[in-house]
Each structure stands twice: as structure tokens, then as C-alpha cells.
Amino acid sequence: MADAAVRSDQGGVGADGADPGTRRDFLELLAWSTMGVGAISLAWPLVASMNPSADVLAVSSTEVKIDGIPEGSAITVTWRGSPVFVRHRTAQEIQEAEAVDVSTLRDPQTDEERVEKPEWLVVVGVCTHLGCVPVGNRPTDNRGEFGGWFCPCHGSQFDTSGRIRKGPAPLNLVVPAYAFEDDSTISIG
Fold first, then answer.
1. Same domain membership, residue 78 and residue 7
2. How far apart are CA 26 and CA 15, in angstroms?
3. By C-alpha distance, which of 123, 120, 129, 125 is closest to 141?
4. pLDDT averaged over every residue in the chain
5. How far apart are CA 166 and CA 169, in angstroms?
6. What is the enclosing helix (H) or strand (E) of 158?
7. Do both 161 and 184 map to the same domain?
8. Do 72 and 42 belong together in one domain?
9. In the predicted model, what is the mean pLDDT of residues 41-62?
10. pTM of the model as a whole
11. Which of 11, 23, 116, 130 sits at 20 to 30 Å (Cα–Cα) from 170?
């Protein structure tokens, strides 16, 4: 019997014929599993607290009624705390935007890449230079040499597709994710 006890301490077969390593392995697995479940239950509330709150989610998308915007006019809506320009472009504005040689642009994008429907342009109204808000939505505003928007702070000029054409801005006006819900409504975000 003493030999069996010695063998049990050395990892052999115990006095009752069971392998003590199996029991030890089971207890170790149980301990690690308990610690894993505990760590997850502590981390879950921390990760969940990083999700956006309901008020943030509420402004993460916005619907815009476009049926009241006359051709050649634009409106400004707020999305995620930033102005968004929605312009109902004229046939001439569309033609001018499509006729631009993309190789001459600082941030080359075709007009087709920037619009869902040619007559509607949706861009975030924040200059990509220093975050100013360009002018050009009102008929009396200076629209620059290219008929789009003009940033009076540093002189950046954007065309009728929101592409940078002159001035210090490095990139085009950003086109947000948007979709046409129907012929009279755009969903931004």
C-alpha cells in the first residue's frame, strides 16, 4: 500500500486505481474556466459602456425632403453636428461637372463617383483645409470661379461637384453615405 501512495505522488496510478493527473487536470480546467467567465463578466459592462448612447444614434442618420428644393438651389441640413449641403443641380451645372478633365484635379474623382443621381449633389459642408464652412448655398453667395462653393477663410474654391479646384484645401468636400428613400426623400447616414 505504501508503494501505491508513493506512485500516486509521482503521477502514477493511485491506491484506488484512478489516475490522479486526470483529477488534477479537471480541477485546473475548472479553475481557469471560472476565471475566464469572471473576466468576461467584468469586461462586458466596460465594453458595453463604449457603445454610442441613444441620443448619438438618433442623430447618426437624418432624412431630408428634397421635393421643395428648386433647381439651381441648395439647402443646408445638420448631420452628426456638421453642415451637409444638398444641391439640386441644373443641367448646366451637371454638364460643367462632367466635362472636367479628372487628370487636372488635385483630388481626382469623376462626377459620377460623387453622385447617386446627377441632379442631386450631397456633400459635407466643411472645408478640408481647416474645417471652415464654405459659402455658396444662397443665390447671393460668392461661389468662386467654378460655380460651386467658396471658402472665404483661406480662398479654397470647389466646383459644382464639390471638388477642390483652387486654394489650399487638399481634398474634395466629403460625400457622406446617403440613399434615396423615394423620389422626394434622401436618407443621410
1. no
2. 19
3. 125
4. 85
5. 8
6. strand 156-159
7. yes
8. no
9. 79
10. 0.67
11. 116
